[in-house]
UniProtKB/TrEMBL annotation:
Keywords, ordered alphabetically: ATP-binding, Nucleotide-binding
Pfam (any one): AFG1_ATPase
Family matches, as InterPro entries: ATPase_AFG1-like, P-loop_NTPase
Name of the protein described by the UniProt record: ATPase
GO annotation terms (biological process): cell division
Domain of life, source organism: Bacteria
GO molecular function terms noted in the UniProt entry: ATP binding; ATP hydrolysis activity
GO cellular component assignments: cell division site; cytoplasm
Length: 335
């Protein structure tokens, strides 16, 4: 008796999800859903050919919603989803004692589908790692899906490094289907309930009464925390909340790997004294953006005591990723 091949009617899946959320899928979203249904057929029939999708668009247009739904619904065991930051943290750890290809192959494992959320590049070192990742996936017929806020040609926009990444952009455009979701609606701002992250709060004004009502700690002086081989300084002893000042976390030389390591042991984060970002250095702005990315992807509760409303907090910031940060912070309670 022949076993029936698994199938995925992804159009039906997404129509049900859209109905549950009370949203109407736009033309670009429906086109993406049809494309993913075709990709599912390729994967489930084990066709020996590389398939890639590079999906970009403004924050809140449904990229992660649709791709995460596809990943969850696809009846394929050999699949892996990773946030960009998390994957590269693991890759740097694997590089200790072995070559790049061996480290990448170990992380890829037996996966026939790799999904990367919030794909972006600011570092030339990471860009070179991405180039090799794409080449290996093509050679091994491992399907790739990237979601990003940027079209391929806007990756690694820094003119000091961009020319060195142009061959990788050509690789993406040659081997991956590039699609865009840029509808007029930011669903994050219109919907309610975005997981644990949205259970946090944006405090402005950050009155003593509001802080007390939420159980937020007061600063008690620098408290040394060991993170790997580094020492960071919290604003109070860790308890129900991991408490940092903006200056202590974002204006200090911290990194994504620090935030990921701290997420392993802390579910609630309180960032105190956040100023208008236009007043701080670009490096501090980027650390704040990275921190929000990590906490959102790891689904940690974030509480922010700010010196101004959110619109003023992000005004005048020229960092490429600030729109995504503003969209995510808009999900926090402001009452």
């Amino acid at each position: 008796m022949l076993l029936k091949e698994p199938r995925l009617n992804f159009t039906d899946v997404m129509n049900r999800k859209a109905q549950e959320k009370g949203i109407q899928l736009d033309n670009d979203q429906q086109r993406l859903i049809r494309h993913l249904e075709t990709l599912a057929e390729t994967l489930l029939r084990r066709r020996a050919a590389f398939a890639g999708l590079y999906l970009w668009g403004q924050p809140g247009r449904g990229k992660s919603f649709i791709v995460d739904s596809f990943f969850a619904a696809l009846p394929l065991a050999q699949k892996k989803r990773a946030h960009f930051h998390t994957f590269f943290r693991e890759l740097h750890q694997q590089l200790n004692g072995q070559g790049l290809d061996a480290a990448l192959l170990e992380l890829m494992g037996e996966a026939r589908l790799l999904c990367f959320d919030e794909f972006h590049l600011h570092d030339i070192g990471d860009a070179m790692l991405v180039k090799r990742l794409i080449a290996l996936a093509i050679a091994r017929n491992v399907a790739l899906i990237f979601t990003s806020n940027y079209p391929p040609r806007a990756l690694l926009a820094n003119p000091l490094y961009h020319d060195r990444f142009v061959p990788s952009i050509a690789l993406i455009e040659r081997h991956m289907t590039v699609m865009a979701l840029n509808g007029p609606r930011d669903y994050r701002q219109q919907a309610t309930g975005h997981g644990v992250f949205s259970e946090g709060a944006y405090l402005w004004p950050a009155s003593a009464a509001r802080r007390q009502a939420l159980g937020l700690p007061d600063a008690s002086g620098a408290v040394a925390l060991t993170v790997g081989h580094r020492t960071l300084h919290a604003a109070s002893s860790p308890g129900e909340f991991l408490h940092f000042t903006f200056a202590g976390l974002c204006e200090a030389p911290t990194a994504v790997m620090d935030y990921l390591a701290l997420c392993e042991g802390h579910e609630r984060w309180f960032l105190d004294g956040v100023p208008p970002l236009a007043r701080v250095s670009p490096a501090a702005q980027q650390r704040f953006i990275n921190l929000v990315d990590v906490l959102y992807d790891q689904q940690r509760r974030l509480f922010i005591a700010a010196a101004c409303p959110l619109t003023e907090l992000v005004a005048g910031v020229e960092q490429e990723d600030i729109a995504r940060t503003a969209s995510r912070l808009s999900q926090l309670t402001t009452e």
